[in-house]
Amino acid sequence: MEYTITIGRRKASIARVYLKDGKGDIIINGKDYKTYFPVEQLQYTVMQPINKLELTGKYEIKINLMGGGIKGQAEAARLGISRALIKINPEYRPLLKPEGFLTRDPREVERKKPGQKKARKRFQFSKR
Question: How many whole angstroms from its chain centre is CA 9?
């Protein structure tokens, strides 16, 4: 069977997700997802759409992740997996949509402005 290919993004992270029928392996950048994300909370984030639909062990998932930090990467992977599952079966949409798994979180880091310390913080003002 062919792979279903989708993309998930979050902050500066991009996840390319390849999903097909299989025995339930999740491989991220050539490693098992539990090795790639040693923090249990991030493993849970990646597995949320699969657990919600009770599809554990049904699909083989291969993910190429790049950019950003580990939390952004985990959330990008979650979005990509959710989109792939809907591509396979559109009936999953009403179950995933209310959970927010299909929403691309648009928040990005605001750029630093010239003449300021950070994006919004300014240098200390001196009257004299």
Answer: 6
- Single pTM value for the model: 0.90
CA angle 77, 79, 84 (to 5 degrees): 95
Sheet of strand 31-32: strand arrangement: 4-10, 13-21, 59-66, 26-28, 31-32
| Mean pLDDT, the chain cut into blocks of 10 residues (128 residues total) | 92 95 93 95 95 92 96 96 95 94 94 96 93
3-state secondary structure (DSSP) of residue 40: helix
Name the pairing type of β-strands 4-10 and 31-32: unpaired
CATH class given for the domain over 4-96:
alpha beta
